[in-house]
Amino acid sequence: MGIRKLGYVGLDVTDVDAWADLLGRTLEVGVTAEEDVTLAELDEFKYRLALHPAAEDRPKHVGWIVDSPRELDRLTGRLTDAGYAVTEGSADEAGLRGATRFRWFTDPVGYRVELVLGEAKVRTGPGRGAIGLGHLVLAGPKLAELRELYESVLEFRLTDYRAPGLYFFRCNSTHHSIALAHAESPSIHHLELEHGCLDDVGRAYDRARTNGVPISISLGRHMNDKAVSFYVKNPSGFHLEIGCGGIEVGDDWVPHDFGVSDVWGHHHADANPFASPAS
């Protein structure tokens, strides 16, 4: 497969300071300012989350790491054949991302998707707590088109689903790197910050409660990937999942409807939009 993993997510945010406080004080994620952007450092690579000051909170771009120049060209051809206009990223943009080069296109709901070569290591290893960016859940009104893009064009594999209308896809052995769902308007439902062990998740849970951070979904274990996690509401209004222990799957995995969402826990503070997924 040409795409190896989820590389980074860029967000336009109205309150960078509130984001930096949540990431640094509660989640113990390192944050640095570079040019006009604040970068969240989850592992040894340059960044996994980029916060761009803006007048409106909205996703800015999603970056996927590609195996090789040959695979970048092959995927570009597949996108072009499917009707997507693919643009070469600038050298300055690539430098900010710690990449050697990248290309981008616009997905069916209007978000910028980037295919990236190279990752710049700037640290010796992950810090305390978070060890990487696990996955994102993207919701929008064009679910069929999104599925066609990720499954048929970009060659992600379907891992499992809840019928009708919620699908989990992988680009490596991790259970999923993206999930797609139906919604009336485009949004990121959540981003998952991967942690190394249950104790790190528990410590983050304690800090969130101590610091008065809104816990939007309580501690629990998912049915499909078996991860233990909780969710907080971030300053842009969507969720950050703090989790660990997700399973890996092999080539012999058979996609299936996993039925109920959770083994235990994960009680929602507000209505769960996926309690009864709509097609």
TrEMBL record:
Belongs to the extradiol ring-cleavage dioxygenase family. It comes from Actinoallomurus iriomotensis. InterPro entries: Glyas_Bleomycin-R_OHBP_Dase, Glyas_Fos-R_dOase_dom, VOC_core, Xdiol_ring_cleave_dOase_1/2. Pfam families: Glyoxalase (PF00903). Its cofactor is Fe(2+). This is Oxidoreductase. Keywords: Aromatic hydrocarbons catabolism, Dioxygenase, Iron, Metal-binding, Oxidoreductase. One of its GO terms (molecular function) is ferrous iron binding. Residues 5-118, 132-245 form the VOC domain.
